[in-house]
């Protein structure tokens, strides 16, 4: 037994004590800084710069330079992020079913009454000179019929919009367009929600780098080959990133180890993340202005305007009442049709300008923020990690390559210090 102890002591004497120099203590310290620096830079390069910086060919193709991984993958990253919203969190039909058409009609009524009276007056004066000679009582009767029709037609329009909402409103397309055209917002969505996880990745480089540096030091002392430090730097840069990424997302399901709950760090914060994510999405992406702008200006806007126009046309006939017969007798059917066309076209054009009147109620009824938060909080861990995982998954090899190359470069610099 003593013989083995002497052999071990002789080994340490020859390979460590006799070759030890105080400067080798710098190796784990430098390795720690390298681990921190490579992780920090890799994260920065994930999100910045927003636009390509470097040299491009005459055709505009990048030759040498860099653009943040997330901004460079704008459309595909937005598409991946939106899949969670549309597939697992928001059901458009279910959300719009919460809207009460009668409340919408009540919210719009005061302005629509004034607007309708104004439009009827203009159309009549333009096409029917006799309108100004018509007794005020007769005009008032027309306006009164309009007042009765407005709430009814508004309610009918809203009900038909609800019944056909998937034809009129494409949530996925709206969200993708908004995110892909706003790289800063897409960056911020990930950075704010994953703030603690990104800080962990950054600072874990210090701890893991130090531990790997100790191993590096123990290998360097007996051998001292020049290539050990660059190789060690490469390994440190690679492994610190790999370990940090795995600790964020794995294990998906919690288990106990010596009384400690072990689970991916991101998953442990599921409820907190859900609230932060819901706040950003509801207040900056799926907002009432964005929703109704997409409905009135999107690919399916013709369908919405068709619904409005159809109901307005029918309502105009009811509103005109006796006046329609009078107009046809005195001025001909063409004149009545022109008045109707002018009034309907003007009213349909004015609706988007005044739709903001229902924003407060619609926001309260749709309740996007609470819906997102509640549903995201209750997602299975395997589905929940799909929100942040794509940030790294699509080009994870680039992050690992950057970390490895930077670590190797730092290893070459280390040679100068030792």
UniProtKB/TrEMBL annotation:
<keyword id="KW-0472">Membrane</keyword>
<feature type="transmembrane region" description="Helical">
    <location>
        <begin position="399"/>
        <end position="417"/>
    </location>
</feature>
<keyword id="KW-0812">Transmembrane</keyword>
<protein>
    <submittedName>
        <fullName>Uncharacterized protein</fullName>
    </submittedName>
</protein>
<feature type="transmembrane region" description="Helical">
    <location>
        <begin position="20"/>
        <end position="38"/>
    </location>
</feature>
<feature type="transmembrane region" description="Helical">
    <location>
        <begin position="229"/>
        <end position="249"/>
    </location>
</feature>
<keyword id="KW-1133">Transmembrane helix</keyword>
<feature type="transmembrane region" description="Helical">
    <location>
        <begin position="205"/>
        <end position="223"/>
    </location>
</feature>
